[in-house]
Amino acid sequence: MDTIKSVKGFKDFFGLDAEIFEAIEKTLFGVAEAYGYKRIILPVVEYTELFSRSVGEETDIVKKEMYTFTDKNERSLTLRPEMTASVARSYIENHFETYPTPFKVAYLGPCFRYENPQKGRYRGFYQFGVEAFGDDSPLLDAEVISLAFSALQKFNIKGLKVKINSIGCRKCRPNYRKALVDALTQHYDELCSDCKRRLETNPMRILDCKKESKELKDSLPKTIDYLRDECKDHFNAVTNYLISMNIPYEVDNTLVRGLDYYTRTVFEVISEDLGSQNALLGGGRYDYLIEELGGRPTPGVGFALGVERLIEILKAQKFTVKEKSIIYIAYQKSSITKAIKVAQTIRDAGFTVLVDTKCGNFKNQLERSAKRNAKFTIIIGESEIASNTLQIKNMATKEQKEIKEVELLNALKERQNA
Fold it and tell me: What is the pTM of this model?
């Protein structure tokens, strides 16, 4: 009988990958908490309309990449391809507008896109992000960027820089769209088939297309030249705040991000040490998203990063995770009840404990302890039970010492810190 394998583009996490995943989760939520963000946990499945209305009908995500199905009540459901839209839906549905503003949340969870799997990019992937609603201050934009930048610094990633642009608001867009269409029409024959369609439906998406040349994109009109004064002032304030925060940045006039809900500020954090695939995370402002999903007009800003890509980068940079010390318990069969009680006492004190389930002679148990990389082995035999003592062996130095049972926790703590 053939074995069943994982679905293409989906990944198991174990060993170093799982340890780095855990370290990433702990670090990112720690930084987010320091900025006042609280965790939100969201459902994996949403109504398809949520993403078609928010992400955009003409985006590759909606047209080509979503995992969409019909349930038993003939409703169209989708495994979420990204999480900002889900947070926005939750904001409206749960009346989070009644909370103090800005309303700040952070999340980490699985997302799904049917695209070509690559190293660090999967069809089933994990996304971490933050969203802040209810404030259109440029200081909030800069704070979100600062949070993203600070989080990546925690992993000692070198060469960090922010790429930033402003794509304006509803009032800026018509004039820019006309100028962009006029310029692109002159290059119509050079465009890929998707971009020829986008020229009619959503020309700004062409700036995000990987098939079009950098030379073509650089020759096109710049969004920043078509900003009305209010949007220009907002962008200038954001970059001034970045300067005051000592965050290096450069303006990238071709940066628009791949989702339709963005307005004004868009950004990516890159590492100049990573070559061409240097983007680590991306985000921006989306002041119309809540309104377009049926809520009251509410500004918002946030970012998201792919956890798998970050894991690959950290592995390449020899990122190490501090292992928690293991305490192993070896015992004679007649001492099993005492071994179980000692193990629970140590676990309750916060230690990681493995009880040898095979038992057998002490030599074999010590060998199994060594294979588990235990730091200490506690040995319990009939003589130890009779005298209310324990043997504690340092597996690295081979030093073995008898201690009173009541002294065990203090002895372990002293040896852990030694």
Answer: 0.87
